[in-house]
Amino acid sequence: MKPLVVILLPVILTIISAGLLRAVGGAVRGPNIAGIAVVGGFITSWAFLLSPGWSSEDSFERIGYIAVVAALAGLTLDIIRPTRFWTAVVAGFVICLSTWVSLNNGFISSGELSTSKALLFLVLAVVAFSVIVRLDQLRAQSVASYVVIIMVALALYTQAIIVGDSSSATTALILALCVAAYATLQLFLDVFLGDSVILGIGAALLAVAWAIAESDPSARIGLILVPLILFADGTAKHVPMPEARISSILYPIVLGFVASLPLGLGALITFVIYGP
């Protein structure tokens, strides 16, 4: 597979589809529905480049299902624009569904629901929901949200590369590229960082992390550090910035650097555990 194709296809698909949706939707609906192009560009590129099966019983093949369901739920929220309560209810349902499917390798449990399994489901669902809530909180800082999502995807890419999971690595890279392309488009078009992006990409990142953890247990400890990237903005805000317009350029760079610290530490831990 040519690296140039892997890089260009997600970017081109995301930009073109988001631009078309923005134009078709008009000034009112266009900015809200354009975000679905991020997951659309991801799914199309992922399916074309990696040719995955579509089985709910495989952690890697499940990524597509989870991303599509979450993105469509998010798109519905972007169109209807309900209260925050109902948004949380829908997000919670999507997270619980994807967590249940991941934990059972399918929609139907192969055995009885034990107390330990129910407890594990509850813990995983709460962690996953907390990740989505944190991404939603960052949405008010559009730049920070994009940088954090991209850095999380790159952290998963790094973890997958270390343990030799090339499929998950490519998937994480495609996710990062689609988000980066949409962020770049936002500089030129009035498009919105909506629930289709937050919920769709957030759920996809969680699914990729699960696939990596299942493919090689060596990555599990390193993966625990990845959520720290979600809080990198707190440290970045305390870095002194010049009182000028250049600060708007420096801040994403500083935030990326701060976010790279847990990324690097997690990668180091995985390398030490995985290495000979």
Provide tags for this entry.
276 residues, mainly alpha, 11 helices, globular
Description:
- With 276 residues, the chain is mainly alpha-helical.
- The chain has eleven helices and no strands.
- α1 (3-33) packs across α7 and α2 (36-50) packs antiparallel against α7.
- The two termini are 28 Å apart.
Topology (SSEs and partners):
Blueprint: H1 3-33, H2 36-50, H3 62-80, H4 84-104, H5 115-138, H6 142-162, H7 166-185, H8 195-215, H9 220-224, H10 232-236, H11 247-274
Helix pairs in contact: 1-2, 1-7, 2-3, 2-7, 3-4, 3-8, 4-5, 4-8, 5-8, 6-7, 6-8, 6-11, 7-8
Summarize the structure.
This protein is 76% helix and 0% strand. By secondary structure, it is an all-alpha fold.
What would you report as the Rg, rounded to the nearest angstrom?
18 Å
- Could you give the distance between the termini? 28 Å
Gross morphology: globular
Number of distinct beta strands:
0
Helix content: over 70%
Output the helix-strand order.
Answer: HHHHHHHHHHH
Largest sheet: none
Estimate the mean pLDDT confidence. Answer: 89
| Beta-strand residue fraction | under 5%
Number of continuous helical runs: 11
Structural class assignment: mainly alpha
Low-pLDDT windows of residues: none
